[in-house]
Amino acid sequence: MNMKIIVLLSLLFGSSLGQSITCDYKDSIRDGVSHYACYLDIQNPSGFDGFTTINGTHLPGRNNANVTLLYAQAQSRTVIFPRITCSQFPNLIHIDFERKGIVTLNQNSFVGCINVQIAWLAGNEIETVHIGAFTNMTRLMLLDLSANRLPTLPENVFSGLVNLQDLNLSLNPTITIPNGVFGGLGNLRVLNMMSMRIHTLVPNWFAPLLNLQILTLYGNNITSFPEAAFSSNRNLRSLEISRNPIGDNLPGGIFRNLTSLEQLYMVGIRITTINTAWFATLTNLEQLYIQENLFISIPERSFDHLISLLVLDIGKNHLPDTAIPANLFDNMRNLMVIIADYNLIQTINPRWFRNITNVSSLDFNYNQINDLPAGTFTSIASLREIDLWGNNIKTISREAFGFIGNLTYADFEQNVINAIDERFLREASPLEFLFLWGNLCSGERFYSFGANLEAFLPRLAVCTNNFRWITETTTVSGEPYRFFEAPSPGIQLRVNTDAEVHISLTSFDFLWNPSVEIIIGTRNNTLSSIIRNQDTQIAVAHSPNIIRTGQFTGFRITWANHAIVVTREGQSFPFLVYNLECIFRVGFYGLRSPESNAIWSIQPVEAEIMPTGV
Question: Is this entry keyworded Signal (predicted)?
Answer without folding.
Answer: yes
